[in-house]
Structures are given as structure tokens and as C-alpha cells.
Structure prediction request, 77 residues.
Amino acid sequence: RKAVKDTTDDEKWLVFDGPVDTLWIESMNSVLDDSKLLCLDNTERIQLNDKIHFIFEVQDLAVASPATVSRCGMVYV
Prediction:
């Protein structure tokens, strides 16, 4: 919400770290596609702009589906 309210031209980066959880990563499908629409469990919808970006620094990909890996551009090293 804070990043969306910031109307400056600054790039905003949201960092997620830890293991990939199947529940939260699946709920982020709409925000990770071209629509960039975050749909929350409470039915709230937050439209993200082109200045907001995500970085996933994951612990492992044990439960990540191939679709999740490709959508997030995850690389396991």
C-alpha cells in the first residue's frame, strides 16, 4: 500500500526471502503477471504500477511449481 501511494518516479523494490510457500506464491499469481493486480484474501485489490518490482531470495524451491519458477524468473544456485 505504501509503495503504491508513493507517486514519485523512484523505483520501489519489495524483497521476499525464505522458503517458497505454495499458499502465498499462488495467491501472488495475478500480481506477477502483466496485470500487476494484487488480490488479497480480504477481497481488497491493489493495482501496482510499473515502478514497483519484486525480488525473491528464496531458501529453496522444494514446493515451487514450474509455473511459479518461470513466472518469478527464479534461479537456484
User: Anything to note?
Assistant: The mean pLDDT is 83. DSSP finds four helices and four strands in the chain.
